[in-house]
Amino acid sequence: MAKLAFNIAPTAEWGVLSCPRCTYRRVALRNEVEDLSSGHLDECPNPRSSTKGTKTWIPAGVWSVTQVSGFMGVSKTTIWRWTNSGKIPAGTIVKFRSCRYYRADKIQALGVIRPGSRRPHTGGYTKGSKRPVPDGVWSVKQVAAFMAVGPVSILRWANWGVIPSSAIVEYHGCKYYRESGIRELGVILSPGKVAKRYGVGRNTINRWRTTGLLRGIETPGNVFLYLEKELSAETRKD
């Protein structure tokens, strides 16, 4: 039970007696404090606040958000988000002293809600995945390994049309690639890789392209790509 506060100077005879649970204030002598405190605490009209460490009483069969989060195996933030989104029905919620509580029988009948799993950003097929794709279909990572580039380059080339649409298929809302179409297309090389292949500079590669010795694939970024199968086996062209 909370005690009344008595504020008084060390040498004074009179002080102010106040209640932490209501607006009760009274000037009293030192010897009156004990009697006035016991009498007021029994008749306090407004037990609205409680001292630190005092547990708030709630009816039986009602769970706090901590108990619900422990039952569901998720955090309290997730429980609040599910409550606001309607994943936990409104009939499950009760309010006491401006706080949310949950009916235990309703929560148990609802059962454990599992958070939805996020799909991988690349959308590729990985070993052990539960989303199988047909044989002869490659993920973006497999095409990137075949081309010896990164997956981002493959996605960019597909958007630019460098990889033909006939080689692209869609499963589970993600792009996949026909193995036969990729093998028929062959490896795509950047100007830097072509220059390294012939042992010349990139300016020489651009000159060969403009003179018709090389055939490049123009991209929206004004960068030309080259198909490995169309390159000559000769080490130099001039």
What would your notes on this structure say?
- There is one protein chain.
- The protein has four domains: 5-42, no CATH class; 62-110; 137-185; 188-230.
- The chain has nine helices and twelve strands.
- It has helices at residues 33-42, 65-72, 76-85, 104-110, 140-147, 151-160, 179-185, 191-198, 202-211; strands at 5-7, 14-18, 25-29, 62-63, 93-96, 99-103, 137-138, 168-171, 174-178, 188-189, 217-218, 224-227.
- The protein has a three-stranded antiparallel β-sheet with strand order 1-2-3, with no helix packed on it. Strands 4-6-5 form a three-stranded antiparallel β-sheet.
- A hairpin with a 2-residue loop joins strand 5 and strand 6.
- Helix 2 (65-72) packs across helix 3 (76-85).
- Mean pLDDT is 78; it is low at 48-54 and 117-127.
Give the rounded overall mean pLDDT: 78
Helix content: 25-40%
| Class based on secondary structure composition and strand pairing | alpha+beta
Counting DSSP E segments of at least 2 residues, the number of strands comes to: 12
Strand order of the largest sheet: 1-2-3
Beta-strand percent range: 15-25%
Task: Give structural attributes.
238 residues; alpha+beta; three-stranded antiparallel β-sheet; 9 helices; elongated
Please give a quick description of this structure:
With 238 residues, this protein is of the alpha+beta class. It contains 9 helices and 12 strands. The protein folds into 4 domains: 5-42, no CATH class; 62-110; 137-185; 188-230.
Strands, helices and their partners?
Blueprint: E1 5-7, E2 14-18, E3 25-29, H1 33-42, E4 62-63, H2 65-72, H3 76-85, E5 93-96, E6 99-103, H4 104-110, E7 137-138, H5 140-147, H6 151-160, E8 168-171, E9 174-178, H7 179-185, E10 188-189, H8 191-198, H9 202-211, E11 217-218, E12 224-227
Antiparallel strand pairs: 1-2, 2-3, 4-6, 5-6, 7-9, 8-9, 10-12, 11-12
Helix pairs in contact: 2-3, 5-6, 8-9
